[in-house]
Amino acid sequence: MFYPPPSKRARQDSSTSTSTEHPQLTQLNHALTTLPPPQLTQILQIVLPHHPHALADFLTHHQAYLSSLEDARRKAPPKDFDHLSKSVWKELNITHRKLRPSQQFEVIGDIQEVIEDAIKTILRGCKDSPRVETKLSALETLRKIGKSMILCDEGEIRKGIIHYTPSVLADAMVEILHGMDEGEMDRLEETETPGGIRWLESQYGRYGVNVFGAVLYVLDGDDDEEEDGSDEEEDGSDEEGEED
Fold first, then answer.
1. Distances (CA, A) of 207 to 64, 88, 118, 159
2. DSSP readout, 149-209?
3. What is the pLDDT at residue 244?
4. Who's near 221: CB < 8 A, 6+ residues apart?
5. CB 136 within 8 Å of CB 125
6. pLDDT tens profile 114-169
7. Please, which pLDDT band fits residue 239 given cuts at 50, 70 and 90?
8. Where are the domains of the chain?
9. What is the pLDDT of residues 7-53, one digit of tens each?
10. Phi, psi of 158 (to 5 degrees)
């Protein structure tokens, strides 16, 4: 007797199966892609505390994401900012040199913006690539920018920027120095940058601009000594209080 072969079952599409068996997943995907971030954040803040296991999983995935970002950041290649000092030098000495003094005065705001944009780029670069080579390049580039400002050939431009922009430059140096550990500070001392910053302090001081003293204060480690001293004073005050 002839028996016909059993008919083959049609292979079910996995996506169709998922959407059929878990229709809420489709709704979830739609919600995640359409909800504005503030509303999505608010919903998570309301729902997750009522589901401890889901909350724990969420926090675990979030920490893994942060760790991957930090790992990628630390493995990022070092950045070289020297091109920014060249751009600033050109802006100070070449771009506006054909202008009359009164016209140079009018473009000082534009020049300050160029310098500040360069400083912001340097600070962002240090956050994206926290390697010591990046920090050393950042400080040396900032030093070069400061030198270009004080030695600017165009008198009106130099007078216009010398009493404002150096403070932004010095603040950036301090921020970078505060992010350096002892080993990185030792590497910095092996370069010519510290001596160059001392030169800036003396040259700007001739014009009554004393902003680089704060940089040297951190560079020489005086702020660390002050913190240690304040800790000792607090300990001493606690002991006196106990005696009373």
1. 52, 21, 24, 10
2. HHT-S-HHHHHHHTTTHHHHHHHHHHHHHHT--HHHHHHHHTSSHHHHHHHHHHHHHTTT-
3. 42
4. 185
5. no
6. 999 999 999 999 998 889 999 999 999 999 999 999 999 888 899 999 988 899 99
7. very low
8. 36-75, 82-227
9. 555 555 544 444 455 788 888 888 888 989 999 899 889 988 998 99
10. -60, -45
Calculate the alpha carbon distances from 203 to 90, 97, 142, 169, 179 in Å.
21, 23, 15, 15, 26
Q: Minimal CA–CA distance to 156: which of 88, 87, 85, 98?
A: 98
* Residue of 91, 90, 65, 184 lying closest to 135 (CA atoms): 184
Is the CB of residue 131 less than 8 Å from the CB of residue 75? no
- What are the tokens at 237? 């005050």
CA 146 to chain centre: 20
CA 222 from chain center: how many Å?
24
